Structure formats: C-alpha cells, structure tokens
Amino acid sequence: MSEVDIVVVGGGAAGLSLARRLTAPAGPGRAVPSIAVIEPPTGPLSSPPRTWCFWERGEGDLDAYVSASWGRVLVRGAHREVVSDGRGHRYKMIRSHDFLPAVTAELASHERVRLLTATVTGIVDSPDGAQVTGTDATGQPMCVRGRWVFDSRPPQGLPPARTTLLQHFRGWFVRTASDRFDPGVAELMDFRTPQPARGLSFAYVLPFTRRRALVEYTEFSPRVLSDDGYQAALEHYTRRVRPLGAFTVTGCEQGVIPMTDAHFPRRRGARVFTIGAAGGAVRPATGYAFATIQRQAAAIATARSAGAPPLPPRPHPRRHLAMDAALLRALATGRVDGGAFFTRLFDSNPLPRVLGFLNGTSSLVQDVALGLHCPLWPMTRSLLELPFLPRQAAEDQGQGQEAFPHAAQRKAHP
C-alpha cells in the first residue's frame, strides 16, 4: 500500500482541475502535497468527448486550452431576437480532447504527482486518512492511502428532490457549403423549435467560422428522446427552421445533465469529500458547472495551503438555489413558458447582470432587479409551495437510471 497526502479519484474535468491547482506553488513555508490521481481504464467508465463552456471577463489562466470564444450572444424567441454584448465578458469553449490530455501531461511531469490507472471499488474513511482500493488495468489489487480523498466520479443515482428535469441534447459539428454563420456571435438559445408539453426546447449554435459550427438540439424535460427523436429534431432545425443548405456532419456529441433541486453532499466522511457533479457543482436551472468546478478547485487549494481542512465550498449561494428550485418547479408544472421566460430575461436586463446571476456572483439587489422582469405570480407561487413538497427519488419521478448516466456531463455551462 502506498501513501500520499491527497488522492483524487477520477481524471475528468473536476479531478484534473483540482490536481492542477494543488500543484501550483503553495507559498512560503508550504510544500506542494504528494498527489495520486486515479483514472479508470479506457472502457464504459471513461468519459466521452465533450465541450465545456463558461463566461469569463478578460484573460484567464485556462486560455491556453480555449478553442473558441465569443463576445456577443444571441437569443431567439418565437417572435423576436435579442443580441447582447458581453462588455468585456467572453463565452469560452474548451474541448475535452484538448484539456484532459494537456493537463494529464502537465501532471505526469510533476515530481509530486502519481497517475494511476485503476477501477476504484472502495473508499474507507478514518479519522486520520482514507484508504482507496480497486483493481489496476491488469486486474491486480490496488490500494492507496491518502490524508485527504476527493472523489469526482459521477453518482450512480440522484438524491431525492422536489423537482428533477433532464437537460438532454445531441449536437452536430457541421461544415456547410456556403457561408451560414457569424463567428462573432454565440447563439445560446433559439426557441423556434417545437416545444414539449413540460419544460422547453431550443437550438444552440456555436460558430467557429462562417462555415463551421456546433449545432445542437437541447430539451429540458422529464425524459430523454430516442435516437430517431434527436435525429428528427436536428433535421427539422437544419432543414426547415434554419436551413443550412448543403452541409456535412463532421462529429457528434450527446449527453444528459440532471437539473434538480436535490441536495448533493460535499462530504462523505472525516477525510473524504465529493467534488464536481457529485458534489453539486451543476447549476440546477442551467446545467452549467465548469466555472464552479474551477472555483471549487481554487478554494480547496487555498484552504490546504493555509493549513485548514480542505472542505469544498458550497458550490452555489442558497439564494440562487432557491430561485433555481422555483424556476424548475414553474417549468415542470407548465406555469411559465420557458422560451418566453429566457428571451425576456436577456431582453430586459444588461448581459453582465444576467451573467452575474448565472455565475453565482450577483448581489441581492441585482437578483431583485432580475426578478422584477420574471413572471411574478407563477414564480412566487412556485417558490412559496416548495417547503410543502416532498422530496422524491428520481425513480418516483419517472426518470430511473437515465437521470445520471456516466456519459452525462458535457458543457457544464457557465
């Protein structure tokens, strides 16, 4: 059995981001901890290729991994469209096939980091450390003991919740035969798609050039579609709603992100913590998580450097979680028209105010100003009834195991 200061279980965005932060210079008198990062062998537990998008003002320390960014955004409603300027904020895209290998190589060259390939089967907590066991790529037993353990693996199921919708999507990377896109504008939501009875649907278009873009069909609804359903939705959008002419599909991404007001534990023992989606990093009302993952990683590294217990911080302010829960309830009950809600949100507020709320950095005064442009009675009714609603398992809400498959997380927006 080997021993290290910190064990990180899972080599996805959350696990590698934390390890990367922990290897940064720790300051006077603080040594970089010894770290073991355990990633499963290539197979069913491996993460599929995906994109992560987030908002950031100016330059950031992840810019080397950014494959594209946009300074303006477009939201199309049924009867109007809204173009907003980021005023210094940019919507940035990082692709997993760029980020994960680059950070893995960076960690592999660090003398204080060990990269292990193994399937973790157990984590045993104790007052002074935790033991991680599993089998390596050859089938041999593996055991690592860490003073602290951070588990970033997606949960096998969702905690009980009052409301759970699924953000499910399929996207095509397309190349058109003629100019069809404005590479300076990220099209966040186009609500001209057929709307489901509960929830909402929209198209999401990220142009890379005038002829290359990611075109994605997304739904917030109780259940995922069949393969034929996603195919039909994308065909309808690219042929009839927004005709692209002749085009070639060069790649595809697909996934499911739970949108839930469930409580995700950040701690599983004296020395074991959960991070990433398993620790509640996914924003309930949007499905975004990447920026939250980065803030969590930075806070953990800062706490560890200061000699404090490295408990992951609360991922989202309580006030924002309550607002998200009310919105989820209003969408799930059909009290609000999702397309009209989001179009009005972007049309009636300066983009920095909306981004502050989405990023979890807005003040109470800013949130009140934002709320005044929402449908007040449906949102107020949904908020007031939340304390009286029972929390139910995903199976009881009709979602079953599709609520959080291993291949679930993609763009973890902003």
TrEMBL record:
Residues 394-414 are annotated as: Disordered. Keywords: Isomerase. One of its GO terms (molecular function) is isomerase activity. It comes from the Bacteria. The keyword Isomerase applies. Pfam families: Lycopene_cycl. Its EC number is 5.5.1.19. The keyword rRNA-binding does not apply. It is an enzyme of class 5 (isomerase). SUPFAM superfamilies: FAD/NAD(P)-binding domain. This is Lycopene beta-cyclase. It comes from Streptomyces zagrosensis. The lineage of its organism: Bacteria, Bacillati, Actinomycetota, Actinomycetes, Kitasatosporales.
